[in-house]
Amino acid sequence: MRKLFLSMLVLLLSVTTVMAQTGEEALKNAKKAFDSYSLNQDATKLTEAVDMIGKVMGDAEMKNNSKALVEAGGIYAAAANTYVIARSTGIGEATYLVPSPAVKAAKAYMAAFTNADPKKGKKFRKAALKGIQTLQGNLSNEGIYAIQDKNYKESLMAFQTSIMAHEFLGENGGESVVTPEALMDEKYYGGLSALLLNDFETAEPMFNDLYAAKYDDAAVYDGLYKIYDAKGEKEKAYEVLQEGRKAFPDENSLLFTEINYYLSENKLDQLTDKLNEAIDKEPENISLYATLGQVYEKLYTSSNEAGDDAAAKDYFMKAQEKYEQGLEKDPKAARLIYALGAMIYNRGAAMSQQLVELDSDFSKEGQKKYAALKEQVDAEFSKALPYFQKAEMSDPSDLNTLIALKEMYARNSEYEVSGEFKARIEKIQAGEKIEKSYFKEKGM
Questions:
Q1: What range defines the domain where residue 229 resides?
Q2: How many angstroms separate the Cα of 114 from the Cα of each of 67, 165, 166, 413, 443?
Q3: Using an 8 Å Cβ cutoff, are 237 and 257 in contact?
Q4: Within this chain, do residues 131 and 208 fall inside the same structural domain, yes or no?
Q5: Domain-embedded: residue 343
Q6: Does residue 346 lie in a domain region?
Q7: What pLDDT does 175 receive?
Q8: How many domains does the structure of the chain reveal?
Q9: Do residues 43 and 144 both lie within one domain?
Q10: Contact by Cβ (8 Å): 121, 172
């Protein structure tokens, strides 16, 4: 038993010794592979170097070693460069040997400089600063490619590191190749990446710097609006939005942000002018006609409830006009078809409430009023029905359309047809999709 214990102890000590040497051996192997790659441009050697340096950086004793960090910076920088060349030229396969290699390279170089002794490690410091300077262009490239690929977390990290590298060089006697104008571009793309991640805290200082520098892009104002709005600073958000609208009156993105602001604040009267302006700029945008139609419809409803018949009639006609203008652009737009039918139907439904009151009036005059009003109500429902039928033909799975058709056919005592739409509603609610239109199958 004693011999067995001693054997195990010797084995354990041997393993420990090997493990202690792993980082150094891996560094030698990484340098050897990278030197071979630098000499022969053998891609397999760069892959080997990347794998080896990863082991070095995972070693507790080597991860703060300036010599190892400079080597890591060079290897990761080469990996970043091969990707940029492949992606920009289309020659070879654009695949990262390691995620965010330019960022890894920059961080390795900065750590190498920081950990090197100011006197004994001068050569490492010099190599680190030179490495960072050479790497700056590919830090930006890495961020741009990530934005193009919609990898906003990676793009934010790249641009943050680019800004950090620029500042690091300035603070430590290096020379940055990033001009003041280019630095603002890095902050712009970094801030944009943060916004796309809804990381408003990170985005705010970048956009504030851009705003202070009078960066010539409408997105600065749009970004600050979104940041302040997310923080609940509505007044400040509106002020910067208005400033942006004055500076960039023809910029559609700010116009649409302004439209969304008025929608969120339910400022309908101001909204109509903005939506008409948007339609002038984008006449083929169907959603604008739908939105403006809905705004006019809300104004119609509020005027009707207030007893202002003249205003209600005017808003109803304007809503109908916008829906119809949208349908001229796209006759099969189910959303517009349904909206127009629903508006007419709802007007008939509102009128039908008065029938309930007149129904109890058995006088000759009361019955006469009832008959006249019922004729109007029936006419409204008859006008609405074809729109719902067309909407169903455009989109047989639209739940609102199916509900409207079920109720309308039940009202007309056509219970078999109403039952068909009831069954379709239940299928939709169960997660199924209706592939075939009822009315198309009927040859309408």
A1: 190-265
A2: 12, 13, 15, 84, 79
A3: no
A4: no
A5: no
A6: no
A7: 95
A8: 2
A9: yes
A10: no
**Three-state helix/strand/coil letters over the chain:** CHHHHHHHHHHHHHHHHHHHHHHHHHHHHHHHHHHHHHHHCCHHHHHHHHHHHHHHHCCCCCCCCHHHHHHHHHHHHHHHHHHHHHHHHCCCCCCCCCCCHHHHHHHHHHHHHHHCCCCCCHHHHHHHHHHHHHHHHHHHHHHHHHHHCCCHHHHHHHHHHHHHHHHHHHHCCCCCCCCHHHHHHHHHHHHHHHHHCCCHHHHHHHHHHHHHCCCCCCHHHHHHHHHHHHCCCHHHHHHHHHHHHHHCCCCHHHHHHHHHHHHHCCCHHHHHHHHHHHHHHCCCCHHHHHHHHHHHHHHHHHHHHCCCHHHHHHHHHHHHHHHHHHHHHCCCCHHHHHHHHHHHHHHHHHHHHHHHHHHCCCCHHHHHHHHHHHHHHHHHHHHHHHHHHHHHHHCCCCHHHHHHHHHHHHHCCCHHHHHHHHHHHHHHHCCCCCCCCHHHHCCC
**pLDDT greater than 90 at residue 311:** yes
Based on the domain organization, do 96 and 227 belong to the same domain? Answer: no
Contact 100, 158 (CB under 8 A): yes
Evaluate whether residue 34 is within a structural domain. yes
Give 414-429 pLDDT, tens digit per residue: 999 999 999 999 999 9
User: Among 244, 180, 238, which Cα is nearest to 217's?
Assistant: 244
Cβ-based neighbours of 121, under 8 Å, separated by 6 or more: 66, 115
Q: Are residues 25 and 148 in the same domain?
A: yes
Task: Kindly state whether residues 89 and 36 are assigned to the same domain.
Answer: yes
Distance CA 347, CA 146 (A): 52
Confidence tier at 98 by pLDDT (50, 70, 90): very high
Domain assignment of residue 35, yes or no: yes
- The maximal CA–CA distance of the chain, rounded, in angstroms, is 119
Q: Do 211 and 146 have their domain in common?
A: no
| Nearest Cα residue to 392 out of 409, 377, 367, 375 | 409
Looking at the structure, do residues 249 and 153 belong to the same domain, yes or no? Answer: no
Q: Are residues 220 and 151 in the same domain?
A: no
* Global pTM exceeds 0.90: no
Give the contacts of 190 (CB within 8 A, at least 6 positions apart).
143, 155, 156, 159, 160, 162, 163, 206
Q: Which of 265, 288, 319 is the last residue of a domain?
A: 265
* Domain endpoint, select from 147, 178, 209: 178
